[in-house]
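EI: anyone free to look at a 565-residue chain?
SC: sure, send it
EI:
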Amino acid sequence: MTIEGPLSTLTLCDSVEVAVHRYRLTADKLTLRRTPGGVFVQGPGLVAFCPCAESPVTVAFTEATVAPPTDLLIKNAVVRAAGVPVFYTPILWLRSPNRLGVLSPHFGWRASEGMWIGSGIHVPLQRAEQSNPWVLDVNAGGYLRGGLDLGGQLTTSRSTTQVRWDRFNSSFVEVDSHGSAVLPHGAFDWSADLLRGPRARIGFVSPEAATQQSDRARSEFIFSDANVLGGVGLRMDAWRATAIDSVGLMGPQMRIGAGGSLGGIGHVESVTSIASWSTSNQNSSMLLVHGGDFSVDARPSIFVGRVSAHERFAYVSTQTEKLRAALTGGEARLSLPLVKNWDSSILHFSHWVEPFTQVTASSGLNNFDGTSAGTSRIGTLQFGLLNIVGRPSSDTAYSVELRAGLVSTKSEQTAASAFRSRASGKWLGIGSDIVWEEHRNWVSSSRLRIGNPGTADLRLRIEGRTGAESGRARWFTDEGWVSRYSPRLARGGWTSVAESTAAPTDWLAVSGGMGVDLNAQTVLYDFAGVAYRHPCGCLAISTMASERLGRSGWDAWGVVDLMPQ
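SC: here you go
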């Protein structure tokens, strides 16, 4: 080491290695000089992004400036992969996450659109060490065959907002935003899930976004005082994939609710919601929904009893018609909970068995499906068994509930049964709701996860129904009192999904899966991906390939990040 001048310049020789923050500079000879903008380094030399003896990616340089807090400005930079030069740029500026900078490059092949290349700008609106950091990432990309893909993501401690505009011959806009804010006298929350434009369903979007039926946006200011809850806001509904400038149905909404405990033995609550919509041609409609619930619990001897009363009312007024529906009734349930605990230094376990019987009765009025009002009466007699095995007061317990009984209407009686299971553990996850009704079998959702998501897991899902959906089956899943004006599933049929992720090492992860329409015997989508992260964290590479119904070809894309978080 040679010190020159007034202790402001150092010349280092013979296998020099200088560590600055996360960077490591090596050379046979380096000159370091203090400047107002940082430390100037005279090469030639190499920059590595980790302390490894053989870094996977290095940058050769002639001059470099190390600026606080962690910036590195390199001149005549040659990027090397495993020692092989792959890219040259006269200036390469590596920025701190707390500073304005360029994002890692993105590249891909998008089916019929062809090759796509993009990057972006990282804009920290607040520093990462602050309690509520705000970060804005603006992305821009282009198709080599002509076209643009522009977007951005704003992330705060309480919200995430993504906006994207894609144009290739025609356009689409995608918006996904949700979040909340705490205010002095309440809270404000919002959500938006929009996909608009002629290319909305066939563009480069996820299968979930492409197959949804409608766009929805909500915003509401919520306030509460003791046992009263109120809210005012705006809502928007529109069919998915309509014109970008189409408003759909938009208008204000308001709700107010009141409720409370009844001396520790029950509760009562009432909620009223009013919403109004207007279309671009000034046609308007109004929806009023009211729901009331009252329940009392009792414990006679070793039994547990509950008696409940419910009321639901909905009213819709449009330019041409007025529709209304009402439902009132109640239920009584009597059960016998039996619990066995094993609590020792070796075993902490419990088994809960609860046989029960339940009776429900309801009477309704509905003219949503026609011009003349129709009345309905539904009653059920159910016998069931709830079985829970696992650790007490833990969400990892495994539960199975079985129900069987009769559903009686004004015109007929039918037999029905239900199966519901839940489990959430490190190596097993189950969520299933199956209702069987005479001549019908309805599966609302059946999911299974085997394995640890951190290492290797297999996820299976099957959803669907056969024939016409019957509202009678809902009474066996405790959802008969829930206001629903559309079926769970748009039509009969069955869909199956299988997905898997495996991380055999700390530096490699692979994933893949597909969704299938079992009735049409058609593949809805499939994908496969590989992700690599260097053991010391200096490099991350991820690639993905997928195809889906509605797009003519495969999509493949990848990301290379020299400074992963």
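EI: The mean pLDDT is 86.
SC: 👍
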